[in-house]
Design a protein that fits this description.
Blueprint: H1 10-16, H2 20-23, H3 30-41, H4 52-62, H5 75-84
Bound molecules: zinc ion (ZN) (2 copies).
Length: 86
């Protein structure tokens, strides 16, 4: 019997470790993980059936707040905000 390993997000682990409550909501498929990366971390992921440009267009349309360094949740912007608030 094949077991589906849940896919732990490296960025979540890096940010706050893995809590018991997170385990139940971990993505189970690559698609779910990609969706999580885009929604939670604002990291665009190019899917197999799209070009890099299509991926970026889809990402910017779905997450316009990622355009703004004040609201973008990607690692770079998060780090920048941290350094600025020192
Ligand atoms: Zn994550
Ligand atoms: Zn950003």
């Amino acid at each position: 019997m094949a077991t589906t390993a849940r896919k732990a997000c490296k960025f979540c682990i890096m940010e706050h470790g893995l809590k018991g409550s997170d385990l139940a909501s971990l993505p189970e498929t690559d698609d779910e993980l990609y969706e999580h990366l885009e929604r939670v971390h604002h990291i665009p992921v190019q899917r197999e059936d799209e070009t890099e440009q299509q991926a970026m267009e889809r990402f910017w349309t779905a997450y316009p707040e990622a355009h703004n360094p004040a609201t973008c949740k990607c690692q770079v912007c998060t780090l920048n905000r941290l350094t600025q608030s020192l």
